[in-house]
Protein 1
Amino acid sequence: MTGCYPHTHGLMGLVHRGWALDVERCKPLPAILSKWGYSTNLFGFQHEHWDPYKLGYQNVYKAKSSHCEDLVPEFEKWLTSDRCSKPFFASIGFTEVHRMGLMPSNFRNKSYSPADPSKVEVRPYMPDISEIRNDLADFYGAVEYMDSWTGILLQAVEDSGIRNDTVVIFTTDHGASFIHSKATLYEGGTKVACIISWPGKLPMDKTVQGLTSHTDILPFLLNLLGIPLPGPVEGRDLSEIISDNSETLRKYVISEENYNNHFAPARAIRSARYRFIKYGINLCIFDFLIPEIELSSFDFRSNRDVFGFYPAKRVNEKLFDLYNDPGERNNLADDPKYCDVKQELESALVSHMRASGDPFLDLTITIRMQEKAYEDIQKLKTS
């Protein structure tokens, strides 16, 4: 949206909890494109500002809901109407694949066809239990439903005769709503889908293996469209890795967490092999879970398998070897054999924070959580 990190563009918490992107400090993509003669249009929801017009959207279209079956027909209708002026930018925000309801939260919808729980892939950062498998089956049903409607949307663009003149970007803002994923700085929370297509202008069927960041999308897109950057951005132009056959764009990617339903500031840096996380307060996976996960069918308080699966010691630093520990359960931060790795990543992270004026660099929280409280409870409940 801006090519900058949250502490730079100001959106360091949830919009529905009183935060908003600082549109004066960092110009968002709709505002930039609007200035250059694009019609800017929002379908469905966005999570950047309580007033979408302040983001630069000229038109906001509201359907019956933000589910695919309501939004896609609304977009199709707009695409063939006099309201569709070209060139245009359209952001389409689906409700899929969010959780719905609470106690327990779920992915169930009468329009979705769940996958077979026995055949779903359980990622290494989650325990392989029936509650997880059933939720994943519903989740993949929602994914398949969204995928089919995305195909209908793309066909509408094709039928309108503008596909070869249209850049399509499919992405999302965080990982799936499961424990050790959404609202965390682990791989499950920060590695997301990103598909970019422009027939005849971008290579087809190319998979980028190197590290990239969402901050890279804006400078890449503006360069692709021949539009100059509105000012300094912190992202890199993806052209280097997409079109120039480079194997890597970055040595590291940075991610950050500030406010969700709670204040738990943290910063993470990932290389090709390792991830280092620095927390502002000592904590473990069970602290500060967002409500939709805490109120799921696999709540750790009532599920011994979940509670016993994750390390419970509260710490300020975590280091993971993603090659040998893709589930990120074995913390190597205090292992002397990985001292050089940790020092390299921490030094690079500090350099990034200094260069970007990150207030986390000077954060000091002297109140500490009880280090072994959850460990003691874990021993009692899982013994």
Protein 2
Amino acid sequence: MSPDYYQDLLQRYLDGTCSAQEGEELFAWLASDAGRKPLLEALQREYKGQEEPHPAGAAGDRIWARLEQSTRARRPLRMYWTAAAAAVLVMGVGAYTWNRYERRPRPTVPKEPIAVQDVGPGGNKATLTLGDGRTIVLDRAAEGQLTRQGGAGVVKTGAGQLAYTALGTGSALYNTISTPRGGQYQVVLADGTHVWLNASSSLRFPTTFTGKERRVVLTGEGYFEVAPRAGQPFRVTAGDMTVDVLGTHFDVMAYADEDRTATTLLEGSVRVSGGSTGSLVRPGQAALLDAGTHQLQVGLADLEGAVAWKNGYFRFDGVDLPVVMRQLSRWYDVDVVYQGHKEKTYEFVGTVARSANLSSVLKVLEINGVQVKVEGKKLLVTP
């Protein structure tokens, strides 16, 4: 079974809705790995011998307190899925169900508002810049046709989605869709290509594709599902990297504050060029272009991690603290300020929903010795 299955099982156990057989299955899974021992012991202490379960929120707080105590006693500098499964599992459940628990009516415990110093997650926010320089704030625009641009109709099809439809007349114009920090958006281009934009990203594209190639320019990060079109290859320029495709699914990460540009291929085939070299990339591989040396390397990819943002969650697989904080900065629209020295080395592993408030995400850092404080739009970090 996948971790998601046991996260759901734990949620229902805390809520008192799982069957006795499911409870036994959950405890057997927790007992099967030594790294899950803190969570298993905490659950046993909370519920053993009690006929009625505690409210989910109260139980979660007590379990968290005991997890923090046991974890801090070890003072780990590296958080593995196996060695800290309890912390990550609770974090996953908390991120997935925290708001749900808070919204559920309780007879004796009033609903608590989001803390003043907490930060809510990002959402569907973007600005469309038209060929004549006019702008449309998409998250404020009503659904339906927004305008007509150079032979294409521009339609907002739903929350967080924009679509271009070729009308067959008029010359192509260039439009740009831009997401701010804390924003994401989807756009379907006139050829049927579907693009997801991550936070703090932009895509410049023609309203219709009439030349020998379909060329777009990306900053930040985007996931592409390219519509095949024989004789008209699709080309993405992202900084110093160029990706040539015929029809495929891939992710391009080209943030200016990262030390490399990455193209990760899920389906099809692409040719990636960077610096003075180029290479074919096959499904399951990633092409990495070093920002300093401009060297291009191709190797096996973490496919799930590359598209986690598109699927609605953060996935950390052995990444260090600055990588985590840059992702949080973009999605929660906060500025990260480091305090004190940064000699410690951390490697974080885990999965957290992007729908969680920032305070929920920070618990994973805090139980591993990273002190974090939110002050307005600043995130003060003491490694």
Protein 3
Amino acid sequence: MSGSTPAMKRYLQYHIDDFVWDLAFRQWVLTPTRETEAQWRQWLAAHPDKAPLIDEARALVLALQPGELPLSEQEIQQAVQRTVERTRQRDLSKTAAPTTRPLPFYRRPWLRAAAALLLLLGISGWLWLNRLMTGPALVSYEQLVTEQKQTLVERFNQTQQTIPVKLQDGSLVLLKPGGRLSYAPAFRGPRREVYLSGEAFFEVAKDASKPFLIYANGLTTKVLGTSFLIKAYPKDPNVTVEVKTGRVAVFAQKDPAHQQKVADRDLTGLVLVPNQKIVFEREQARLAKSLVDNPQLLPGPSQKNPFVFDDTPIPTVFTTLERAYGVNIVFDSDLLANCPLTAELTDQPLFEKLDIICRVIEARYDVMDGQIVVYSHGCKP
């Protein structure tokens, strides 16, 4: 791939913080492939003056990597922006006469920003780990319920069938066998809060002024009105949240910013959209975002899409799938512009569709961080 393609030309205008938050750049730094290595080598050969900037951005991406688990992406981005801005302002405010003597490596502004950022992440990570270690390793359903001051109603499904539980606000909970659900008879405060042990599917009535929160095995799920599944069995090491419709925010109950995220009326934390899921590792308090095992078509016109392609460019095919399933597919549109597809993919689930497409164009794909990343050498015109 040429270093002068439109997809790569945008990098000529990038500053260091733009590179740090560019998905393609981060994937190259953290999970390089033969294709991305060749692509960036060619780009650097065409623009050797950008090599120092690339080296600095790589260093920041690698420095950020250890801190990504305890902090949300939004929190890290805000930290980077604040740190870089403070560094720029500090450098601009210096009144000393300019000098042509090069700065020592350890005094370069970008390295100071990285050091300040690492200090910030280190302190935040230490506080996060300290709070995790000083409290109980796991937050149990029984502990959460007994700590509540208000009287709660509990539904315990002792049958072999899923039972419906209708809440005062109109929300519906489908409680699986063995599941327990505790909630207030009426949601009178600023939030609608319930406590779950086991598995349940939620259809939450919309109320933007009163967020709906589910506490389950150390994980808090926050919504304004949507449908989703939660699996939180007492002896299971993981908690899983799968989104069907709407948007869902999740965060650990041991998160130092937990109370702030609960009180905020907006969705803060790690946000999931339809066909995405989160797996929360309870012992490690680790969140891993992915796609559900069998992504479903979004409701609406997309369900009537026949997925019949006749010499259709692959970028158009991927865009069609993105809109139909609400998933993000990362691919190089320039590289795949000369790859056509003629196929009828009406009946296959999403991943089978992708398997067929990738076999046709000799590509492969991975699911990373709740999105699909396609790797390809392209097609000859």
